Every structure is written in C-alpha cells, then in structure tokens.
C-alpha cells in the first residue's frame, strides 16, 4: 500500500473509533436476534406474508427459507430506472429456483436532475437523498428479511439507498444496477449546441433536437456524471456483482447478472457461516477509502464529496474534504470520460471500464485489496469481465452460463483509459481550496491547465437567474469571477447550478478569464470552467461569501489550493455579511413541495459534513 493511503486510512480509523465501535455493537445485537418469522407474534407474521403464494408462505415460515427484501427506485420518469419494471419477476424466479422467497419491501422516490435542472424542483434534489434513505428504512423496518437487494442507479438514489441499508447493517445487501443507454449524439456535440443556444446562434428547435438525440432511450445518461460515478464507486466497494455497472439494460448479460445478484446475496446470508457478510461489517474504513480513490482516479462527480461523507457517517465512519485532498495528491488520474474528455461511459466500458481501474489501483497500492466483497472474492477479482458462454452440448436448451474472464492487460483505448504507470495526471481530479472565503472544492480534471489560476473582479449574484440575465445583457463580457451565493443546503436545498455552464463556457471561449464561486453545487457534469463549489460555511449561515462585493478582486488558485478575496484584512473583518433578501426567502420556502422540506433546511449539516438531515 502507498504510505499516504495507509496514513489516511489509519487517521480515519482512529478518528472514527468510538462511533464505529458503537455502530458495530448495534449491528451485532441485531444479528443475534432470532429471525423475523420466529421472533414476531403470529398476527405480525400473518400480516407480513399474507399476499405470498401458499408455497412461499410454507417455505419462509415452516422451512425457514431466506426471505429477500427488494427496495426499488423504479419509475418510468428516469430513463435509468425504467428497466427496473421487470426486475422483481426475474429476482423472484431466481430465488424460487434456489429455495428462497422474495418480497418487494418498498419503493423509494427517485427524481431526475436532468428534468429539474434550473427549476424549483432541483431544490428538493439534495434532500431527496435522505428521503430515499428514510424510505429504505421504512421498507426494511418490517424486519422480516434475511437480506436485501437494492435497485437504484442515479444521482441521489444510490447514496440514499446505501445510507438506508447501512442503518440495517445486520443485513447482507447487494446493489443491482440497470446499465447505461446506448450512445447517441456525442456529449461534446451536445455541449456545442448548448453554447450556441446560449449565444442565440440556434433556436429552441435545434436545441431540443440535439438534447433528444443525446438522451434517447432506457438507461443512464452516457456522460460520467453522478449516476455513473455511483456505479464506479459501488464496484470499487465490492457491493456489485463484479462487472455489472455498465452492461446495457436490454443485453442478455444484464438478466444473467441480476440473477447472479440473487445467488450472491443468498450465499452471504447464512449467519454463522464463513460467507456471512452483512453490509455494516463489509463497509469499513478501507472500503470507504477505496471508494474515495476510485472517485479521484476517474475524475468523478463532485457531488460525492458530499454524499460519501454522509454514507461513511451512516457506517460510523468520519471523513472530510482534507482526506479527499490528501488522497488526491497520490491518486493517478486514469480516465478521460466526458466532461473530463470526449468519450462516453460506453467507450469507457469498452476500454476496460471500472474493472481496469480497480485492477490498476490495487496493483499500484492505491486501493486496499484485502477487503470483503459481496462476490466472496478479493477486490482484484472485481476487475474481471462477465460474459455468457453457450451451454454444454448435452444440454443445448439450457440458458447460457455466466462466467468471468480476465480483462486484457492493456487498455482498449489509451485516449480514454490509461495504466497507473502512465496516467493522464499524477494527481486525482479534485482539489481542496481554503482561504478567507471558506473551504470549497474544485474539480480540476476537466479544467485546462492554463485556467487553474484565475484572478479577476467579482460580480455577485443571489440567484442563478440573475446571472443568466446579466449574461444575456452582455454585462459579463470581461474577466470575471462570478459569485453565486445563497445556494447552500440551508438556503434553498443546494441545487445544482449546471444551467450556468453554457454561458460561462461561452465567456471562457471568448478568451476571458472566468471562474465560478458558489456555496451551491455543480454536478458530475462540472465542465471546463473553473468552479469553486460547496463553499462552506454557506452564506445563509454567515459564511464569508456574504461579505463579497461587486468589484472585489478574487483569486482562485487550484495549484496552491487557495480561494481568497484580495481585500484589506481590516476592511474585510469590518464588513457585515449580506442577508438573504426577504423576497428570495419567501420564494425558497414555497411552491412545488418546498414547504415540506422546511425542517430539513433548518437542521441540515454543512456540505463538508455531508449535508445530513438525520443527525
């Protein structure tokens, strides 16, 4: 192991020791209870299994067969989740073949950030993560399950399911992905049309045509955003059947992998057996570090600097942005996938995908290879490639057989994926920024090297709509650091500000030195404009962004890791932070369900603490 990875892991272990010990004690206490059907009263048991076919009732009660709870994020609003419609039938069929029973324990809400981007619904997006975690708890709290399968792919859904599952840490759990859509219009071509539209060079018709050619079918969006970063991290944590992340929803291999998820969760379910792997024990400090390294090595979503802090906390583990920053210094950047390059996730998978990344990082001592996985095999086996082989000639009618084979040693495309010995960069895709404007993060993997340092006068906005209006009026045609404040978790739920990417990219394309500084989020789609995001403490909490005035010189230095307002210290100290205008507070509090999330806004922790609402 690289000494820095060891040091960070040990620091996390020591920091977390009291919390983790208490968590594991609760997990052990839950494991030691009698199984649900034996522990509960007869009326409770009758209610729990009333709708099961008679044979399944007998199996689960009399024969004490394992009962798998399925928590699904299925809906047909999300292209990535639409394929889940048929998964329960496949899961039930496979479980019955193996003598087990299955119940869909519950469904959780799953919203599409692509639909709500730039609109009020996006203000519910971050909090939907904890709502999903609570929904997972509601589903599993019926407490008659011996294991769980978790069906979800997209942005807040996977972290929410994982947080919820970790609160039932006594259960073995396997995540079941659905896969990406086929490649459509390239991400770079789509971005060009967006920039042209922002400048008025094309109309709405051309823009809609381009967007529809990019987002055109079932499966995840094909850029390397939060949804696809989720899948990379789950593979690195050993919570998937190996190689399951990026197989297309309707490929024959997808159903085979789903059936294998049933087999694996049953294999790790029997308490007392050597294979028993409850998720609360499996997800330890090493596994969390592996996820962090996988994120950094692939230039993944900035959202996970919030989400995985919350995930770790759910397992009794404490991490912060300094841990990410230290790991980033020794993590090689191995992947170039849009927005960090021109390739999409299908090209990433074809070049070697998550398996190639995991193998390279384990072999380079950047990942802990000695962790448990749901496959029951070492983490390096997570690098192997799933495939279907024809049945034996004697049983030609049998279904093809799922097996794994070693991936090619070489990358299938070094423009997309490189070995650890020849990375795109010696450092990972994230950088911590500190200074008199607070603590923030920047995704540097997609930012041109000559834009890692930007110094320019500030232009301050309290809403993203105000920025867009200033852009359309030609007021930003100069070197400028755009400050968008009152976008943090307490202000309005910390929406993604991805709608700002096209106008800022246009300004940068004109040769101006441009940067964004905000207490809001961007997303996994953070692009080529340098953006200091998640600034903490946020403006509504009295954070220093509230002190910035139009014209203040701002220096964003991703090389030195600083974010500073270059204002006389005495003047800076004397300034009173701006307050959220009352009319904006009113807008943020009402409409499209925002009233229901008022309590979450009041009690949420900071972005660096995971924007957690349940502590």
From TrEMBL:
Keyword 4Fe-4S: yes
GO cellular component: cytosol
Keyword 4Fe-4S tagged: yes
Origin: domain of life: Bacteria
EC number: 4.2.1.12
GO MF entries: 4 iron, 4 sulfur cluster binding; metal ion binding; phosphogluconate dehydratase activity
UniProt keyword annotations, A-Z: 4Fe-4S, Carbohydrate metabolism, Gluconate utilization, Iron, Iron-sulfur, Lyase, Metal-binding
Pathway: Carbohydrate metabolism; Entner-Doudoroff pathway
Role of this protein: Catalyzes the dehydration of 6-phospho-D-gluconate to 2-dehydro-3-deoxy-6-phospho-D-gluconate.
Similarity-based family: Belongs to the IlvD/Edd family.
Name this protein carries in UniProt: Phosphogluconate dehydratase
Name of the coding gene: edd
């Amino acid at each position: 192991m690289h000494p820095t990875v060891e040091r960070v892991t040990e620091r996390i272990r020591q920091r977390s020791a009291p919390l983790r010990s208490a968590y594991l004690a609760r997990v052990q206490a839950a494991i030691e209870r009698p199984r649900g059907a034996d522990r509960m009263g007869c009326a409770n048991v009758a209610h729990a299994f009333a709708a099961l076919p008679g044979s399944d009732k007998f199996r689960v009660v009399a024969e004490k067969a394992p009962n798998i709870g399925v928590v699904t994020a299925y809906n047909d609003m999300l292209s990535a989740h639409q394929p889940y419609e048929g998964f329960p039938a496949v899961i039930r069929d496979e479980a019955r073949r193996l003598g087990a029973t299955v119940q869909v324990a519950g469904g959780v809400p799953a919203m599409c950030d692509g639909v709500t981007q730039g609109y009020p619904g996006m203000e519910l997006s971050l909090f939907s993560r904890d709502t999903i975690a609570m929904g997972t708890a509601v589903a599993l709290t019926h407490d008659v399950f011996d294991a769980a399968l978790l069906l979800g792919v997209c942005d807040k859904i996977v972290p929410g399911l994982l947080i919820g599952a970790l609160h039932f840490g006594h259960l073995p759990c396997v995540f079941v992905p659905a896969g990406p859509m086929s490649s459509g219009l390239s991400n770079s071509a789509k971005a060009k049309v967006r920039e042209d539209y922002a400048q008025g060079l094309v109309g709405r018709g051309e823009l809609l045509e381009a967007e529809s050619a990019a987002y055109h079918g079932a499966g995840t969006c094909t850029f390397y955003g939060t949804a696809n970063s989720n899948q990379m991290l789950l593979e690195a944590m050993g919570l998937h059947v190996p190689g399951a992340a990026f197989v297309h929803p309707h490929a024959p291999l997808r159903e085979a992998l789903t059936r294998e998820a049933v087999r694996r969760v049953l294999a790790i379910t029997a308490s007392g057996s050597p294979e028993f792997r409850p998720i609360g024990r499996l997800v330890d400090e090493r596994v969390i570090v592996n996820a962090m390294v996988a994120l950094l090595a692939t230039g993944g979503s900035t959202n996970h600097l919030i989400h995985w802090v919350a995930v770790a906390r759910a397992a009794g583990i404490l991490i912060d942005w300094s841990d990410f920053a230290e790991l980033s210094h020794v993590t090689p950047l191995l992947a170039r996938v849009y927005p960090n390059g021109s390739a999409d996730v299908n090209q990433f998978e074809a070049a070697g995908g998550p398996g190639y990344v995991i193998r390279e990082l384990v072999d380079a001592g950047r990942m802990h290879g000695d962790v448990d996985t749901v496959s029951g095999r070492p983490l390096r086996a997570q690098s192997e490639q799933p495939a279907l082989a024809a049945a034996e000639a004697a049983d030609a009618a049998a279904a093809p057989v799922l097996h794994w084979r070693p991936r090619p040693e070489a990358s299938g495309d070094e423009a997309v994926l490189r070995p650890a010995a020849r990375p795109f960069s010696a450092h990972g895709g994230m950088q911590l920024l500190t200074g008199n404007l607070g603590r923030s993060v920047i995704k540097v993997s997609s930012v041109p090297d000559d834009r890692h340092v930007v110094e320019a006068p500030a232009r301050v906005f309290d809403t993203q709509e105000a920025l867009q209006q200033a852009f359309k009026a030609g007021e930003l045609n100069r070197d400028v650091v755009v400050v968008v404040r009152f976008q943090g978790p307490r202000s309005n739920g910390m929406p993604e500000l991805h709608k700002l990417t096209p106008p800022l990219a246009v300004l940068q394309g004109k040769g101006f030195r441009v940067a964004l500084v905000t207490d809001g989020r961007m997303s996994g789609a953070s692009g080529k404009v340098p953006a200091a995001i998640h600034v903490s403490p946020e403006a509504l909490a009295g954070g220093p962004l509230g002190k910035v005035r139009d014209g203040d010189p701002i220096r964003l230095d991703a090389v030195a890791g600083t974010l500073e307002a270059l204002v006389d210290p005495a003047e800076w100290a004397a300034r009173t932070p701006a307050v959220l205008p009352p009319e904006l507070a009113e807008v943020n509090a009402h409409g499209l369900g925002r009233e229901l999330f008022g309590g979450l806004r009041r009690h949420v922790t900071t972005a660096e603490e995971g924007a957690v609402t349940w502590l």
